[in-house]
Amino acid sequence: MSGPCEWNVSYAAAQGCNAITDLPADERLVFEMMAVHYLWRWTGTKFGTCPVTVRPQRADCASYNSFSGGVPAFLPGEGAPWTPALVNGQWYNIGCACGDLCSCDHVEQITLPGPIDSIEEIVIDGMVLAAHTYRVDNGNLLVRIDGESWPTCNDLSQDSAVGTGGTGTWQVTYKQGLQVPIGGQVAAGILATEFAKAATGDKDCALPKRVQSVSRQGITVAMLDTFDDIQVGHTGIWLVDSWVASVTKAPHHSRVYSPDVKESRRTTWQT
Known about the structure:
The chain is of the alpha+beta class. It has a domain at about 50-175. The chain has 4 helices and 13 strands. Strands 2-1-10-6-7 form a 5-stranded mixed beta sheet, with no helix packed on it. The chain has a 4-stranded antiparallel beta sheet with strand order 5-9-8-13, with no helix packed on it. It starts with 17 loop residues before the first helix and ends with a strand.
């Protein structure tokens, strides 16, 4: 992925500056894209949501071993023939990793590549599944809540879209990623404005100049900035740098984990 699919830009902190707001929309978009890509990289490529379509498939479905489109995802049950599982406080070796249900025929939840921002659509056998029949827990668990089970196999040799999906096919379309906080939207507006100023030679540009002069004992030497700081998001603009630092320098806390304690469950999306 070369950049985020969605990153709104706010000019709330650039009021009264015409360097970018007076530009034609297509030219303004260029500077906005530059700013967004810089911020996206500086913050670890974690912000911004993108639409993703996956076709869940369990690895032991040998009859459906071809792939025709989408992104493959896997249900519980993949991997080694015997898998350790914690069931009611005791460890067992079971033939499939289906969790506490200890069943390979009734799958109530699957793990999808997250974080999941929202579910756009689930199509089973070419028909859209009603949104009230599922939810998302912990940001990546797709849970069936209508008493039914997710299909255990997926015929990847057939199309799975609405109206054209064949029997035995299904797909999940969702937005993956984290929504950009308002601070990131404002930072993008400030940075885009400064890029526009720099491109037009505006003397009020807040971005640091690449050529810097150092004077010692009456001798002035011009040096080129190596841009070492810019690689980690140090622009010299306080509002931009402070936001980048706030989302990349998380505090470190000690944690203790026990295999006997189940992970807490929190619903993160539901219609």
